Amino acid sequence: MKIKVEAVDAYIPKNRVSNQDLAKKVDTSDEWIRSHTGIGARHIASEEETLSYMAAEAAKKVLAKSDTDPLDVDMIILSTITPDYSSTPSSSCIVQDLIGAKNAAAFDIKAACSGFVYGMEIARGLMMTGQYKKILVIGAEKMSSVLNWEDRSTCVLFGDAAGAVLLSPSGDESGLQDSILRAEGQGALALYQKAGGTRNPFHGEIEDKADLYLTMDGRAVYNFAVRVNVSILKELMERNRLSIDDVDWVVPHQANARIISAAAKRLNFPQEKFFMNLEEYANTSAASIPLALTQMEREGKLKRGQRILTVGFGAGLTYAGNYIIW
Ligand code: ACO
Q1: Which of 16, 231, 283, 291 has its CA 20 to 30 A from that of 310?
Q2: pLDDT by residue (tens digit) across 260-277?
Q3: Is the model's pTM score more than 0.85?
Q4: In the structure, which protein residues have their CB atom closer than 6 angstroms to any atom of ligand 1?
Q5: Do residues 136 and 254 both lie within one domain?
Q6: Which residues contact 223 (CB under 8 A, 6 or more apart)?
């Protein structure tokens, strides 16, 4: 049995912050950000646009698009590293309430920028049991809330958004064909938030305020990202006997245009087959792939029957890929 994407959509906060806007607050420039990352802007959520609100808005759009009654949703899998609450409840439970999906099981997963790709494969496995017919997979992040806005090496890179898909049994050979999910835990501290968890609880006093925010070894993450983009795409293509010509689109996690270009070059893959929209939205972590798919659909680039490879990579360090016949 294959599972297919019935509908995809996204929620993007209205507040657009350009590189020039950012350069008024931190020591950076449009020129530096564009030349090092390809990013031109990001959208930043307001206080009212909580993580669960954005995720629920994206979910409502896919339910409306696919004409699905929220009561028919069997499960909500929400991937996020920026939940409403740090320990409990899970944000997926709040989303369940916001969209009125009373019959759905709900849980969060945490695989950072690979989270949406992980969520797709988890949904596929659960649907194979025959117990679940309609599963919402949501990737949502409010990265702005964990960024140190005084650290120019990280705050320029990220944005906020939510993207969602509704999955159901496909009835034919289209849909999710194969996935690879991996992690390299030895690199865990290359991208992390030191304080606030149970290892370093935060109860109002802290030696170094920077520990409350995301810190990153940018060069280590960059090298990892290029290496695993190449290995995941190669392995997915080999396993599924796909040539470069067979692949219509690669939809990579939208972290940095240089990472994506370097991977395409190493694979001898035409750059035009790698969809990119990070110039407008920056790195939205788990939301970036469904957000990219949404834009591709709006632009008429996504068609049924196309062969699509997704590739996610990020904190954890995690990496993963899906092969989908759309
Ligand atoms: N504006 C201006 N100058 C800057 C900025 C900025 N925003 N940020 C850093 N610089 C400076 C540095 O201070 C340094 O100056 P120095 O030479 O005087 O010391 C110089 O620019 C070069 O800094 P590097 O860190 O060496 O720059 P690099 O070319 O490596 O680019 C970057 C940095 C863009 C962060 C790159 O390493 C990268 O993209 N890494 C991957 C990051 C990533 O994608 N992370 C997300 C993973 S997804 C997830 O899981 C959440």
Answers
A1: 16
A2: 999 999 999 999 999 999
A3: yes
A4: 28, 32-33, 36-37, 112-113, 152-153, 156, 191, 216, 218-219, 221-222, 225, 255-256, 283, 285, 314-315
A5: no
A6: none
